[in-house]
Amino acid sequence: MLFRPYSVSSRSASKISILKSCIQFRASISSLRVAWRKDPKLDQAIENDKQWRLSARVVREVLNEPGQVIPLRYLEKRRERLRLPIKIQTFLSRNPGLFDTYSDRIRPKSDPVPFIRPSRRLRQFLEDEKRVHLENEPLIVSKLCKLLMMSKNRVVSADKLVEVKREFGFPSDFLVNLVPRYPEYFRLAGAPGEGKSYLELVSWNSDYAKSVIELRAEEESRLTGIKIRPSFNWKLPPGFFIKKEMREWVRDWVEIPYISPYDDVSHLEQSSREMEKRNVGVFHEMLSLSIYKRIPVPVLGKFCDDYRFSNAFTSVFTRHSGIFYMSLKGGIQTAILREAYKGEQLIDRDPLIEIKDKFIELLAEGHKQRTEQLKLQRKMIEKDMELMTRKTETN
């Protein structure tokens, strides 16, 4: 015979089957598109925080100045960068509890100009902030360890961590004061701020190597006496629908065993279903560790290399719209963890959120003070008008 019949061994057949499966998965993932739909309630959750975040930006700007004082006109010039839509003087009059105004010279022989500095109330808030950070230091340490434990090489750029400190509730000086106190967990290499510094995990703590989803499954198993498999809460809000083929894909995807974000996945292909499952788990865990259970997508994008995210990672948030919501509020994409909210209210409250509550109380005191001042001014005007009317009638 010139030609021998070609037979496929069982091992080769298995490889071909796996290859076909991978190709089909790539095709199915690339062809599956979920239309973005607005969720007004979750958008409102972001809108509700707009005012205090704006005030917090102005406060941080002043606190970062030498001596924590700044000429009023200098702060006015930075208004565009601070995204402040009103003049600084108007902002101060609307928030009288934040700063004190006084006169001083910029140079020895120059004329005095208005300066601002933190008020007594603001300084009290800063003391409360320190207290909350100190009381929750074990939580902060565990968050920092978890972020390193999920990373590719247990190492993350220190500068990147500084950029996300507010998302996770880290103190401003955590690299200087907190990290050195825990040499059993952290090693800082390089000088922060120069772009070549890294925070490295020194030792692995198995107590931290459990995700929110795994802990939830363990708790449910304990309460019911039935072994519960770790799984995502995949639920769309009322009025949201996805196409039949997408529902079938999601159903099959949900059945894939959960992969902990703390597991070693160096053996997984980037385009595999398992890697998709793992990436969703990492995003879920990162959002769960954040204070407000939401993080701007551009911030997450800075960690692509550290956590092995693909360049097209943003599609995860729309493809898994029963787990996440992608808000476009404020002209920026923000990934939100659906299960952490009921309507527009955050129900999964991080202990560090007490800092925000204290700051809102500070703003409320200032607003109350302003309201009382306005009432007093109106009464004085009314009194003056009455006197003028009497004089006119008398004449």
Automatic annotation (TrEMBL):
The gene is LOC113733817
Recorded coiled-coil stretches: none
Provide an example Pfam family for this protein. PORR
The organism of origin for this protein: Coffea arabica (Arabian coffee)
- InterPro entries according to UniProt: PORR_domain, PORR_fam
- Supply one GO molecular-function term: RNA binding
Protein name, entry field: Protein WHAT'S THIS FACTOR 1 homolog, chloroplastic-like
Q: Where is the PORR domain?
A: 38-367
